[in-house]
Structures are given as C-alpha cells and as structure tokens.
C-alpha cells in the first residue's frame, strides 16, 4: 500500500488495552484483536496512526447491526439499502472496531467524499451469536438511536496518535520483550525488520503464500 503516493496506514487496538498507544495492558471484548504485544509481522516503522476503539462501541453496534430492530432503525434513519444491511453480517467485533478506527482517522485527517478509506473485515457476526445474547441481557443500555448516535455519528478523535519516527521506534522496541526475551527470536532477526527492504522482499513470496492459503481452504471445505 505504501507504494501508492498518499497512502496512510492506521492500526487499531482496544482502548481498554492500549499497548501500542500507551504501553499499557488490560482486558476487553474486541475478540479477534491481538493485545499486550507488538505482532512480529507488523511493520511498525511504516505505520502512520495508532487508533484505539472501545469495546463498549463494538458491543453496542454489534447489537444494532445484527438484530431486526437495529436493522429496521438503520433503514429508516439512514436510508441504506437492503444489500448494505445484509453486508453488516460481515462485521464481527474486531471488524466493527476497524470501522470505528477508520472513522476516527477520517475525521482527524479531515477527509471527504473524494477520498478513499479502506479497512478490513477480519471476522463475521456469525461468530458472535452468544455475544449478542450476552450483551442484550447484560449491561447494555440504550436504544438503537443512542448507540448509533454515540458510537457512529459522534465518534471523536481521542485516544489516537499520529506517529513520529520516535513514536514508531518506541513501539518497535516494545516488541523486543516478547520476541527476543520470551520467544527466543535472535536479535539479528528482530533488528532486520527495521530495514524497509526486509518487508519489500517479502512481496516475492506472496504468490506462494496465496497458493498455500487456497490449498488449505480447499482442504478444509
């Protein structure tokens, strides 16, 4: 993505466990988002923003997106099509967090209708049927309108950082404790990831990885 001029990369984590943002730890319900570590495959030094989203938002919006009353509200309130409504099933808890992170970055950067913002739906709602039941029966409060207004329409630009070289190095160095001291990665292999050419060279093996993924999916289907 960085080969395209003007591309900005943002990573999302939970406010309740802001490891990249503040070197902190904690618990949250955004299942599917790794926490308390800097992933070895994360190219920290080309990351432009770190954004934190709260699991209160993903829990509430999961209810709005995946219950009939919530979907009916969205149709009446926003006028979005049935195809879009059906597509909400592709948004699980971590996918909703990614969407919220994209909204926060968009507002911070002042982007508009002529800009393209791309995020990733890493999981689907079908994985979290029990979470919908739990949230509806637990501490979830408020109407569809309140949840949509609070977590979508008025999402603020708090709990995020525009990364400088120093802040990127801070996050990169934090990974030392997991990968070198705990997992036994050599210091040489760990440090090699500072060089942009390390990441560029990986593109040569992407076709092979894609074939292996296709083969694995075919075998599992």
Write structural notes for this entry.
With 221 residues, the protein is mainly α. The protein folds into 2 domains: 10-185, Rossmann fold, CATH 3.40.50; 186-221, no CATH class. Helices cover 52% and strands 6% of the residues. The chain has 12 helices and 3 strands. The protein has helices at residues 19-22, 55-66, 68-78, 82-87, 93-109, 129-137, 144-153, 165-174, 176-182, 187-192, 196-202, 206-220; strands at 10-14, 49-53, 160-162. Strands 1-2-3 form a 3-stranded mixed sheet. β1 (10-14), α1 (19-22) and β2 (49-53) form a beta-alpha-beta unit. α2 (55-66) packs across α3 (68-78) and α2 packs across α5 (93-109).
Q: What is the H/E order? A: EHEHHHHHHEHHHHH
Gyration radius, to the nearest Å?
19 Å
Secondary structure class reads mainly alpha
Give the tally of structural domains. Answer: 2
Low-confidence stretches: none
State the helical fraction.
40-55%
What strand line-up does the widest sheet have? 1-2-3
Offer a few descriptive terms:
221 residues; mainly alpha; Rossmann fold; three-stranded mixed β-sheet; 12 helices; 3 strands; globular
What's this, in brief?
With 221 residues, the chain is mainly alpha-helical.
How is the secondary structure organized here?
Elements: E1 10-14, H1 19-22, E2 49-53, H2 55-66, H3 68-78, H4 82-87, H5 93-109, H6 129-137, H7 144-153, E3 160-162, H8 165-174, H9 176-182, H10 187-192, H11 196-202, H12 206-220
Parallel strand pairs: 1-2
Antiparallel strand pairs: 2-3
Helix pairs in contact: 2-3, 2-5, 2-6, 2-7
